[in-house]
Specification:
- By secondary structure, this protein is of the alpha/beta class.
- The protein has 9 helices and 7 strands.
- A 5-stranded mixed sheet has the order 4-3-2-5-6, with helices on both faces.
- A hairpin with a 6-residue loop joins β3 and β4.
- α3 crosses α9 and α7 crosses α9.
- The longest helix is centred in the C-terminal third of the chain and has 35 residues.
């Protein structure tokens, strides 16, 4: 059950209810949990077309699909950072100038043991359009990282002003404007992507942000790491981050298709 803070799932288990489709109507569920149960029973996704159309209407071209990977440590890797501070070391950026137009990919992956933020921001500035929406999944994370990085790099004040351009692709899934039983109650992009598009991260060596952070730390801070191992880690990092932004493109396209095919 989505955000079951009341522990209702344990009550259902004890009463012999072992599947969402079996949850009784008198279960006193909240609205999102009710939608989750209805989707489990029917097998059909819940789709709020007007809300999804309103969300899609907020997108302003060119669209910049953006994802950051960060590293943190109890003992900071870089001067001027605090324990457990999220320091960005990588980004993937897909830019689509016009609807249905070609897509350009930009990427950055830090190398070496110097603070990656100045080079990170310089590379981002070169690839990011001056206008249009920046689409991210759980955008508050990207915005916070950019603000902190800009504050640490006074030569890049522009990055602190990007916040108003962000559109959070998490919102229509967190709000249950779209919900598929195959998400299993999760709004994570790792759950939404296979439920909505049939593709997933299972073929990748790196499949989540924690693994990416560990791989980056190993590639840059492990003494005497074989060169071929380091290069493989970097290839794996690039493949993972690229799929995060490619996934966002696929999700937006899927929502466009759903709302265009459905009556309002």
């Amino acid at each position: 059950l989505y955000r079951d803070t009341q522990g209702r799932r344990w009550e259902f288990l004890e009463s012999g209810v072992h599947a969402l489709a079996e949850v009784p109507d008198a279960g006193a569920l909240n609205i999102k949990q009710q939608l989750q149960v209805e989707a489990a029973r029917s097998g059909d996704p819940h789709v709020d077309v007007p809300v999804l159309q309103s969300f899609l209407a907020t997108l302003e071209w060119p669209l910049s699909y953006f994802d950051i990977e960060t590293t943190s440590s109890a003992t900071p890797f870089y001067d001027g950072t605090r324990p457990y501070q999220q320091v960005p070391f990588q980004f993937s950026l897909h830019v689509q100038e016009t609807k249905n137009g070609p897509i350009t990919h930009h990427e950055f992956l830090a190398s070496g043991r110097e603070d990656p933020r100045p080079a990170f921001l310089a590379s981002l500035e070169a690839g990011l359009p001056a206008t249009g929406s920046i689409v991210a999944y759980h955008a508050s994370f990207e915005k916070r990282c950019l603000q902190e990085s800009s504050a640490a790099c006074p030569q890049h004040p522009w990055a602190a002003g990007l916040g108003d351009r962000f559109v959070d692709l998490l919102n229509p899934f967190r709000n249950f404007s779209y919900h598929n039983r195959e998400q299993h109650g999760s709004a994570s992009i790792k759950a939404v992507l296979p439920a909505l598009t049939g593709t997933d991260y299972s073929h990748l060596a790196i499949q989540d942000g924690n693994a990416a952070a560990r791989a980056f730390a190993a590639s840059e801070f492990t003494e005497e790491l074989p060169a071929d191992t380091r290069e493989q880690l970097r290839r794996d990092l690039l493949a993972y981050c690229l799929l995060d932004t490619r996934a966002m493109i696929d999700l937006v396209n899927a929502l466009e298709e759903i709302t265009s095919d459905s009556p309002s």
